[in-house]
Design brief:
- Keywords: Signal.
- This is CarboxypepD_reg-like domain-containing protein.
- By secondary structure, this protein is an alpha+beta fold.
- It contains nine helices and seven strands; from the N terminus they run αββββββαβααααααα.
- It has helices spanning about 1-20, 85-90, 120-125, 140, 170-180, 185-210, 215-220, 225-235, 250-265; strands at about 25-30, 40-45, 50-55, 60-65, 70-75, 80-85, 95.
- The strands form two sheets. A four-stranded antiparallel beta sheet has the order 3-2-5-6, covered by helices on one side.
- β2 and β3 (about 50-55) form a beta hairpin.
- The N and C termini lie far apart (about 70 Å).
- Residues about 1-20 and about 105-110 have low confidence and may be disordered.
Amino acid sequence: MKHIYIFILLFTSFTAAAQSIGEVEIKGSIKVPAEADAQGISIYNKTTGKGSVSNRNGDFTISAGLNDSLYISAVQYRDLLVVVDKNMVSTQILQVEITEDINELAEVVIKPHNLTGNLAADLKNIPVLELDLPTWSAAEIMGMDYTFSPDAQTGVTNPGMSANMEYGFQPIKIIGGLVDLVAPAPKDRSQEIRRARAGYDLLERELLNRYDHEFFQEVLKIDKEEILAFIAYLHKKGVSHALLEKENELQLLDLMVLQSTEFMKR
């Protein structure tokens, strides 16, 4: 009987330890500065790869376990890293306060002349070079510190000629260009379609594996029937596959929140 009692005690201890180590649903609250917007702040669990977004009151829920790293980020606020401790796991509550991220403008240096603000005086102090262009050689003009851009006097560039073929032409290139205009290669077109389809399939698979339907409905306010249409909308907008990397999760969440608003305005 004594052995059974010890076994039950050990089993209970192991069960309690397993529960304490496992993930729990943490209810979080983010306090922002007065008059600031608490909605749309991204919360990303770097350990599990799961994410969440705060509502207008700064509230959110996210699954996390002991020692998980939670990144809290938004464009207008300073990024914050929170490591989940035993108290957070036991109470399942997280309260944080973030501050606005104030970007200081870089110093502007005006040179090489010191301006006083007095236009008449500044005009006298700035040296002016009188140019007699008709007497200048082409080498002297091209040696000036100036970037020459095409204008109305610039000659027309012939795509059939290379840069070092001013008086020649390339008939093969001209004929090839005309053929491409009349009848584009069907093989290239089919490859382009396959690449676009593969890109969409990758985006759809990654987003649906990471976020459930409740995330799209509750956080992004997108109906269940519109989820695939929203993913297609993101693909059409040219979402970079680099955002699907784990370290770019925060940027992906920010983009999805922003684009969901535009998607609903269609």
